[in-house]
Amino acid sequence: MRRPTIPDLAEAAGVSVATVNRVLSGAANVRLGTRERVQEAAAAIGFYGLGSIQARVHAARPRLRFGVLLLQRHRPFYQNVAHALQAAAASATGAEIDLQIEFLDDLSPQNTADHAVTLARTCDAVCLTSAVHPVVTDAVQSIQAAGTPVFALISQLSAAGQMHYIGLDNWKVGRTSAWAFANICRAPGKIGILMGNPRYRNQEMNETGFRSYFRELAPDFTLLEPISTFEAAAVAQEMTEKLLADHADLVGLYVSGGGISGALAALRATGRAGQIVVVGYDLTDVTRAALLDGTMTLVLSHPLAQLARDAIDGMIRACTTQAGNQTSIVPFEIYTRENI
After folding, report:
1. What does the alpha-carbon distance between residue 9 and residue 160 come to, in Å, rounded to a whole number?
2. pLDDT at 56
3. Which of 123, 130, 183, 197 has the fewest CB neighbours in a 10 Å radius?
4. Is the pLDDT of residue 161 over 90?
5. Dihedral through CA 335, CA 252, CA 73, CA 129, nearest 10?
6. With 90 as the cut, is the pLDDT of residue 323 above it?
7. Are strands 333-335 and 298-301 parallel, antiparallel or unpaired?
């Protein structure tokens, strides 16, 4: 077989011979997308200069630094988010990404705001998970005013759509959780609700959608007032034990925020595991084990690979094309013991 030539490569890539020559020489006046198309064609036909083209494409990509603020390092979910973001940054084709991820153990608004402002000084874009608070909002507005894009990850920071958001449609998440209780519980009864902190807009929207479903379609259930766990497992365990003690007729427990490991520990310690319907969020080693042993009934989960890809790709576009709003609503996953 003859060795593919430059005209062969031009035909395979759908460009001119002159464009291929500009790619091979590293000329600046070739769009990155065209360089990547020539690279893909070179790999497909076995072009002898593939290594040179790959080097040129690599050199032509913009180099961007992204800063990410996630919640508490000890929480498995946020460790999983971090790993997904690192993988997405490493495989991104639109730019070479230097990713700096920080975990906030102190979730106070001032600490969150200070870390976001510090990151923004050295980053091309900032992505954070945070509760809504005037101090955080003010910091975010100052970062955006200075020209640095800000992305809200998992929990929205702006109800008016003025900030890029990557996450779930939490209204639908809440209503889907309610559907599960209404259709799985053997009879209507009381449902306890645990929230991490109502200032997290995703949790607030979860509860709103949850209540709207029962109000509309299952009014015979009694929804107890939500109890805040402050994203702490120890508090969640204590609050769950109190719920079980105060309401012996509890038929369900909805864990809408952080601290789910504590809630599961309370169910097991009190002998109520498997006796009530339990719905919570995100598939981790902890929730997987709870599904398998029957402590949990259903888990709604973020598709972490897609979430991370959309976040990284959105930040690249915001930095390189000044495109409009990069909000991406990703579909949630549903797990039971039978499909994990």
Report:
1. 48
2. 83
3. 183
4. no
5. 80
6. no
7. antiparallel
Confidence bin at 159 (pLDDT 50/70/90)? low
- The pLDDT of residue 1: 64
Look up the pTM and report it.
0.86
> What is the CB neighbour count within 10 angstroms for residue 241?
18
CA distances from 206 to 136, 168, 255, 275, 295 (A): 21, 10, 10, 24, 21
Phi/psi at 167 (5° precision): 175, -160
User: For the segment 86-103, what is each residue's pLDDT rounded down to a tens digit?
Assistant: 999 999 988 889 999 999
- DSSP assignment of 183-226 equals HHSSS--EEEEEES-TTSHHHHHHHHHHHHHHHHH-TTSEEPPP
Distance CA 240, CA 235 (A): 8
Quote the CA–CA distance of 210 and 216 in Å, as a whole number.
10
Secondary structure of residue 251 in the 3-state scheme: strand
- Name the strand (E) or helix (H) holding 71: strand 63-71
Owner of token pair 């497992």: 233
Sign of the alpha-carbon torsion through 34, 35, 38, 44: negative
Domains detected in the chain: 6-60 (no CATH), 64-168+304-330 (3.40.50.2300), 170-301 (3.40.50.2300)
pLDDT in tens, 37-83: 999 999 999 999 999 888 888 777 889 999 999 999 999 999 999 99
Report whether 129 contacts 167 (CB < 8 A).
no
pLDDT tens by residue, 62-72 = 899 999 999 99
